[in-house]
Amino acid sequence: MKKIKVLAAMGAVMAILLSCSPSGNGEIVPANYEVIPLPSEIVTSEGDPFILSRSVKIIIPEGNEKMRRNAEFLAEFLEISTGIKPGISTGTQENGAIVLATGLQHPNAEAYEMRVDGKSITITGASEAAVFYGIQTLRKSIPADGGQVIFQPVTIKDEPRFSHRGMMLDVARHFQPAEFVKRYIDILALHNLNRFHWHLTDDQGWRIEIKAYPKLTEVGSQRKHTVIGRNSGEFDGKPHGGFYTQDEIREIVQYARERYITVIPEIDLPGHMLSALAAYPELGCTGGPYEVEATWGVFDDVLCPGKEETFTFLERVLSEVIDLFPSEYIHIGGDECPKVRWEKCPHCQARIRELKLKDSNGHTAEHYLQSYVTARIEKFLNEKGRRIIGWDEILEGELAPNATVMSWRGMEGGIQAAQMGHDVIMTPTAYCYFDYYQTQYTDEEPLAIGGYVPIEKVYSFEPAPGILTEEQKAHILGVQANLWTEYIETAEHVDYMVMPRIAALAEVQWVEPEKREYEAFLTRLPRLVGLYDKLGYNYAKHIFDVQANMTPSFETNSLEVELSTIDQAPIYYTLDGSAPTASSTRYDGRISIRENVELRAVAIRENGHNSRILSEQIKASKSSYKPVSLLTTADPTYRFTGEGMLVDGLYGSNTNYKSGKWIGFGGKEVVAVIDMLEPTEITTAEIRNCVVTGDWIFDASEIILEASSDNERFTEVKRQQLVDTNSTHWSDIAVHTLSFDPVTARYYRVTVKPTVMPAWHPGKGRKAYLFIDEIALN
Ligand code: NAG
Question: Which residues in the chain are classed under CATH 3.30.379.10?
Fold first, then answer.
């Protein structure tokens, strides 16, 4: 691909430009075709550029409504960015026109070509949808802040990698009005997404009008209040509710369709159904009473599949759903359905006997009962010409014959389903959960569910893992990200969680992996961000922050710190905790740290868009930056950068155990040996555990410190037993300091043992996870 060159012909066209410049300032701004998502092929050439003048027209084929709408979109987009609103006409090509056409012969219906020469811009698509993507490319190639745009001659050939390019929105936890949903669809369209997964029902609210069951919205769409924070036990005292009428839904489906986005509705069943149970308690195993849930989590009361009326209910609801949504796919949820009620329910047990369901292959009869529900609903929908998507729990028991699996708890479900010949949509939490934090500095963030999915992580996602054969990979229909809204109430907050991570998602969905390069993506991003500004979107600004790459070096025995910004803005820093300013030390290479310091850094920009201040407290101990080896292995998901994290002098500041500061071990002891390089006297050992018992992460049960001069024979220095006296869930950072008479040795071995989970906990009798951030010997 050739880089765009500054045109030699620029001077020659200057005079014409000045006369037709909309802003009158005559500033010439060349279009840049390297937009997000990056087109497959961009070949620029020499020659006269195309000049966007006030007289420009958009020409479309006659009698094609979709193409007329495409032209209207283009006219509107051009007006937003340049102030020029082209007229639209049908017929043959004229000089100075933008020509939109279908008829491109291409196996991919979403493929388009865009050609620019001195006379015209032509976008030819394999379908109207494809033309729309060409329009988006054209629109995004124009700088958002106006000026006189000139287009260098180019031939762009472009097609998406995946056919399912989705984004989910949960309107159950927090309802959003129809206008909001349309705005969300606009954001998807800007990024070339083509599937809007609409999570319409959940424990905390039923949001879709169903004529056959009016109480679903009368009762199920309203909750009396909402818990404050993360299930604090205190409530806000404000009723919350809302739903979409069928007319509104039709309008939204049409709005999305005009933007070539298919709306996939989700009715989450048989779990996450408390809002429906509150309205129709007879559909639950116990008969209720139930309430629309006001806290977050997974709840034991679910639909009763022992009763035939549950199926009548589901079929009637789904019949109305399919009348409203033309999508071939209907999402039927299937996630997080506890089986405790079914185990005790006479109706469910009778159904289990009737169907001769048995515990087998590691699944209980009740898991097979959920498979029965899924298969029965699938059959119902298949007969109506529709197909189902379910969360990866539908693999537990027996997978319904034609189901598509949405893999969220990792990639494994998706891999397994693809290997079984089923279609898959990848949406693993570690890359695709946009309700997770996007920075490690969570103290300054709006409250989120936890987790850590920075934009770089999203960008690094490869949805078709190498262990699949080519044939199996063909079952990966695509990728989507999910926005669950337990902690997200406003449009501004939605914007903030979605953008710019959706830009990274868009490239994962559209661009072939060999063309995906994070550094290059970052150079494209500021121009898209310019458009966000223009459109009034409240995107997250972390990308403009100072990035710190901090690695303990066992060669220099120091913490090597590298600072950077995406736009190479100058960075200034201090090490004494004072606020950095333009008169502080300017960063010009790596910083080596061996002592206790507070690093603070800021990027200063001419346009005033300075970064937020990065602050890192570095607490060096005698063991910091000394070679450490782990004799047990960390959990692959929570290993992050590995054993060096134990001696990097960096501490997790809160109980967000996915922040990359904590290293996690699954139900096994941690054994680490630190080589102090020379005999070193110590009198204390401090070990910190992150505890979140709700996530099966407990404090240690025992810590043992041993010393050795040869790394072979160790003698015990200190052993400390820890007893957890809590009888309910808790989360905190537990700090353990072992003190002892001075001991001198070169090698120290630290063993941290996990707890066996207590009787009050669902994981009782099993060994808990252990998370540690540092071993400090002093
Ligand atoms: C999961 C739940 C969802 C919740 C979300 C928060 C799925 C399929 N299920 O526990 O209801 O809102 O995580 O990240 O994601």
Answer: 10-158
pLDDT in tens, 679-707: 999 999 999 999 999 889 999 999 999 99
| Assigned architecture for domain 164-278+320-335+378-527 | Alpha-Beta Barrel (3.20)
**736-764: average pLDDT:** 96
How much of the chain, in percent, has pLDDT values that exceed 70? 96
The C-alpha atoms of residue 630 and residue 634 are separated, in whole angstroms, by 9
**Which atom of ligand 1 is the closest one to the Cα of 173?**
12
CB contact at 8 A, 82 and 149: yes
What are 99-140's pLDDT values in tens digits?
999 999 999 999 999 999 999 999 999 999 999 999 999 999
Distance CA(134)–CA(128), nearest Å, equals 10
Which CATH code is given to the segment(s) 628-777? 2.60.120.260
How far is residue 476's CA from residue 158's CA, in Å, rounded to a whole number?
Answer: 20
Closest listed residue to residue 494, CA positions, set 547, 559, 448, 551: 448
Q: Which residues are catalytic?
A: 336
545-618: CATH topology is Immunoglobulin-like (2.60.40)
CB 736 within 8 A of CB 729: no
Given a cut of 80, whether residue 18 has pLDDT beyond it is no
ipTM for the predicted complex: 0.98
* 368/82 Cα distance (integer angstroms): 59
The residue whose CA has the least distance to atom 7 of ligand 1 is: 335
The closest-lying atom of ligand 1 relative to the alpha carbon of residue 433 is 14
Residues near ligand 1 (Cβ within 6 A) = 335-336, 391, 408, 433, 435, 449, 484, 486
